[in-house]
Design goal:
By secondary structure, this protein is of the alpha/beta class. The protein folds into two domains: 114 residues, Enolase-like, domain 1 (2-Layer Sandwich), CATH 3.30.390; 236 residues, Alpha-Beta Barrel (TIM Barrel). Helices cover 40% and strands 25% of the residues. The chain has an eight-stranded parallel sheet. Strands 3-2-1-17 form a four-stranded antiparallel sheet. The chain has a three-stranded antiparallel sheet with strand order 4-15-14, covered by helices on one side.
Length: 362
């Protein structure tokens, strides 16, 4: 099976509610779609969201990196030459991890189709279904408490609460949410780099002392501040997770070796795709560190790839793949099946995606 062509398009999917964090506010998913064609007639799909405030990748940058550099590296290659293809993708352009991820995912989709098996079974097939949390956007305390109660009514048993935009009221937010939903539901706190190290320690300790029962705290300090991240990890009881601090396998290794965080969040758009995400899983297995699998604000193509990874690997113990359920509609035919918090990979070969509606091809 030889890759004969690559084309790109754009999709726009409205959200049910605005998505708000300490870094941005978004009302729709605006992603770049990659379609790889082959001489056998098979098609592989990939996807990349422009998340400039996190990865630095804008829509124009993604399209330019793929069209001007990465496409030339993969077109003409045989899908069986997987290691060489991934090396070429990685070496085609510096950074541009989301662009690399989109093509990487499409190649792996083809590889699964070539082998006649869903990707999660090729990688280990640890579980056939996973359970995701759902994100509660950063708003005023009452709105966040209401949104949390609505999520629990839909069956979610783990909530990811966005904080960090207004530290002075963050404890008030969590207190009101906990009062509204009780203690049977797990709360994960994500500050999105919004606190300073000493401030983070003070806030987390106050939440601990108040009996707010946090499962974990995600990326409390700026991404570059690994010393600050380690300071927080060493001085609170709640497990601390690195997100924006961990892009590459090298980043993950440094964090694990220094014990700067207790958990590492793998996101395909940070890692540059499934190939490096698999490497991070291997590093974590050797290091004895658990991983979460997360996503940016993405539609179902790239999230399906993450679902397969989560289903395959035992070291991934926490799941934050709620992007598709935050969308008002689903233009992706096939792929992972979402029943609110319960998610399972399609059993068809590769990603199991059969088509995408509403793509504006470039």
């Amino acid at each position: 099976m030889r890759i004969t062509g690559l084309r790109m398009g754009r999709i726009s999917v409205p959200l049910k509610k605005p998505f708000k964090t300490a870094l941005r506010s978004v009302e729709s998913v605006e992603d770049v779609i990659v379609e790889l064609s082959t001489d056998s007639g098979e098609v592989g799909y990939g996807e990349a969201p422009p998340t400039g405030v996190i990865t630095g990748d804008t829509t124009g940058a993604i399209v330019g990196a793929i069209g001007d550099h990465i496409a030339k590296a993969v077109v003409g290659m045989d899908v069986d030459e997987l290691e060489e293809i991934m090396s070429r993708i990685d070496g085609a352009v510096v950074h541009n991890t989301s662009a690399k991820a989109a093509v990487d995912i499409a190649v792996y989709d083809l590889f699964g189709r070539l082998r006649g098996a869903p990707l999660y079974k090729l990688w280990g097939g640890y579980r056939k279904e996973i359970v995701t949390d759902i994100t509660i956007s950063a708003n005023d305390p009452e709105t966040m408490a209401r949104d949390s109660a609505e999520a629990v009514a839909l069956g979610y048993r783990t909530l990811k609460i966005k904080l960090g935009k207004d530290p002075a009221r963050d404890i008030e937010r969590i207190k009101l949410i906990r009062e509204r939903i009780g203690h049977e539901v797990e709360i994960r706190v994500d500050a999105n780099q919004g606190w300073r190290p000493k401030e983070a320690v003070r806030l987390i300790r106050r939440m601990e002392d108040a009996g707010l029962s946090l499962e974990l705290v995600e990326q409390p300090v700026p991404a570059h501040d690994l010393e600050g991240l380690k300071h927080v990890t060493d001085n609170v009881s709640v497990p601390v997770m690195a997100d924006e601090s961990a892009f590459s396998p090298r980043d993950a290794l440094k964090i694990m070796q220094s014990r700067a965080a207790d958990i590492v969040n793998i996101k395909l758009m940070k890692a540059g795709g499934l190939h490096n995400a698999l490497r991070i899983c291997s590093i974590a297995e050797v290091s004895g560190v658990e991983c979460m699998i997360g996503c940016m604000l993405e539609a179902k193509v790239s999230v399906t790839a993450a679902v397969h990874l989560a289903a395959a690997k035992k070291v991934i113990t926490k799941v934050d793949l709620d992007g598709p359920v935050l969308c008002r509609e689903d233009p992706i035919d096939g792929g992972a099946v979402f029943a609110e918090s319960l998610v399972r990979p399609n059993e068809a070969p590769g990603l199991g995606i059969t088509g995408i509606r509403g793509v504006r091809w470039l």
